[in-house]
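debug: dumping io for the single-chain case to check the tokenizer round-trip. Nothing else runs in this session.
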Amino acid sequence: MILRMVALAMLLGVVLTAGPAKASPFNADGTYFTTLCSSNALSHRDLCQAYVVTISYGTVFNRVEGYRACPPNDSLGWQHVAEKIKSWAYNHPELWHLPLVPFVARGLSKVFPCWG
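debug: decoded output
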């Protein structure tokens, strides 16, 4: 499963063009993310999860666009983490204009804040 997520994350730039019509590395934003995550296509949901996993790793080890997050360990599962971020995204349509990476990083920092 982890290898699958890593492979998806590595192919992220190439696969963007396979997403919804708005997909492009240059205009992917919160709207694109929520559209992708709510799609019925398994490949879109996998890509949504790959975004969350990739950006999560960044927010744990560094700040991403000024945001830091501490998602739970692997025992909770990345699908659960992705579902939490998707739910946060649906509740914040006023932020959908933000570019995808800061949008997801912000969500991660709100849903899984670091304490101490």
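debug: round-trip ok. Residues 2-111 form a domain with the 10k-s Protein, Hypothetical Protein A; Chain A fold (CATH 1.10.890).
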